[in-house]
Amino acid sequence: MSTVSTAPTTAPVSLTGSNIHLAFGTNKVLRGVDVHVDAGKTTTVIGPSGSGKSTLLRALNRLHEPDQGDILIDGRSVLKDNPDKLRQRIGMVFQHFNLFPHKTVADNVALGPQKLLGLSKEAARATALEQLESVGLSAKADSRPGNLSGGQQQRVAIARALAMKPEIMFFDEATSALDPELVKGVLALMADLASTGMSMIVVTHEMGFARSVSDTVVFMDHGTVIETGPPAALFDNAETDRLQQFLAQVL
Ligand code: ADP
Ligand code: MG
């Protein structure tokens, strides 16, 4: 388990998605979603499979352009910004880490800083080694991803995202593909990152994490936010039948 500190080097930002609508053809996947994370805080998004959680993250970083609504970082709309520039500000960690198997761990982490931030090969490697240290994996820098456990590979993916000096991090079911014994270490690293003051939006089925790490929990179903608030309010005093039923199934 990692308890290494991973202090962000970029000032954290707030992010707001306001009245986000997004349809795929006739399938209205997001129907006016409001979501917010304060600077340096963690908002967790929970809800049944198919409720639109992944689509929401992809709408917020404009991998899918919303049909309606606004996205604000520190109160300023980013809808007219260059989408690539926006995505550089947002670190993403997915269920499947998608590391390049034939590159070393350090090269996987150094690639973005070199190609997208324009760092020299040496500076990119130094950044990579620094981030690998922050996730407790310095010793694996010159290994291939295939020689690491799934949990270690996911920590490399987190290091890869952090190497881009993001202002906010998105996690989409980052532990769902891991063997059960590897989940804890990755959640601990995410909790660590939250405690250093990184702004984070975390989609997860890990209710323990949602309860103990989040500042705000958002419960989505069928493309709408059913309830939102501090974890204690949602987990101990769910107001709607839908959230009560969901919690009864997952807790
Ligand atoms: P969740 O992450 O909560 O499980 P998703 O956001 O993945 O939910 O999916 C919500 C709905 O959007 C589903 O009905 C899914 O089929 C649909 N969907 C997601 N991505 C696409 C896409 N690229 N094209 C068409 N439909 C999609
Ligand atoms: Mg999903």
Automatic annotation (TrEMBL):
SUPFAM superfamilies: P-loop containing nucleoside triphosphate hydrolases (SSF52540). Signal peptide: none annotated. One of its GO terms (cellular component) is plasma membrane. The keyword Endoplasmic reticulum does not apply. It comes from the Bacteria. Belongs to the ABC transporter superfamily. It comes from Antrihabitans stalagmiti. Keywords: Amino-acid transport, ATP-binding, Cell membrane, Membrane, Nucleotide-binding, Transport. Residues 15-247 form the ABC transporter domain. This is Amino acid ABC transporter ATP-binding protein. InterPro entries: AAA+_ATPase, ABC_ATPase_HisP-typ, ABC_transporter-like_ATP-bd, ABC_transporter-like_CS, MetN_ABC_transporter-like, P-loop_NTPase. Pfam families: ABC_tran (PF00005). PANTHER family: AMINO ACID IMPORT ATP-BINDING PROTEIN, GLUTAMATE_ASPARTATE IMPORT ATP-BINDING PROTEIN GLTL. It is found in: Cell membrane. SMART domains: AAA. It is a peripheral membrane protein. GO terms for molecular function: ABC-type amino acid transporter activity; ATP binding; ATP hydrolysis activity. The keyword Lyase does not apply.
